[in-house]
Amino acid sequence: MDNFLLAVMAYDRFVAVCHPLHYTTKMTPQLCSLLVAGSWVVANLNILLHTLLMARLSFCADNQIPHFFCDVAALLKLSCSDTHLNEVMILTEGVLIMITPFVCILVSYICITSAVLRVPSAKGKWKAFSTCGSHLAVVSLFYGTIFAVYFNPSSSHSAEKDIAAAVMYTVVTPMLNPFIYSLRNKDLKGALRKVIGRKRFSTQ
């Protein structure tokens, strides 16, 4: 679901930068609700597919999952059945689920870059790019760790590396989102200055 929501946010940035005068007519509440609902439906269909494929496997060895949550890749390592079909589905269906939104994000930012480069003033270019910086930071962090976990053969990485990467995209990225997307928010900056000032005052 994060995949598709990041693509939706990229489209939102594309409309805001490339078609600012039409933003309110294009990004209507109805369209936003439809995009979020669509992301939720696709995510749940993805979960259902892997659950049904996992139900056909046998687990006759160790029943302790070497992970901090019930991840598909970690479960496959514990199965004593043939997991070839499951691994093929992770790669093929995963490509559609992961690459399609990623391509949409790339296309959006190519269009945004093209539009920004036509802006005559340096200040205008910086303002346009700065609105996209926080989103790009989350995209880089999210997709970098996802690709490291799911698009490598299971034998090429250890459980410890899988856990570290999974923590990045399931815990760290969502936790950083409020801060990353609010870096240009004056109220947040003011609140942070007050907190830092109180700590300095209390230590003196």
Shape label:
globular
Low-confidence stretches: none
Using the CA coordinates, give the radius of gyration. Answer: 21 Å
Structural class: mainly alpha
Summed up, what is this model?
It is globular and about 65 Å long.
Please tag this protein with its features.
single chain, 204 residues, mainly alpha, 77% helix, Olfact_rcpt, transducer, GPCR_Rhodpsn
SSE topology:
Blueprint: H1 2-18, H2 23-26, H3 29-55, H4 72-78, H5 84-117, H6 122-150, H7 159-180, H8 186-203
Helix pairs in contact: 1-3, 1-5, 1-6, 3-5, 5-6, 6-7
Describe the structure.
This protein is mostly helical and about 200 residues long. The chain is built from 8 helices and no strands. Helix 1 runs parallel beside helix 5 and helix 5 (about 85-115) runs antiparallel to helix 6 (about 120-150). It is globular, with a radius of gyration of 21 Å. The mean pLDDT is about 80. Keywords: G-protein coupled receptor, Membrane, Receptor, Transducer, Transmembrane, Transmembrane helix. Pfam families: 7tm_4. This is Olfactory receptor 1F1-like.
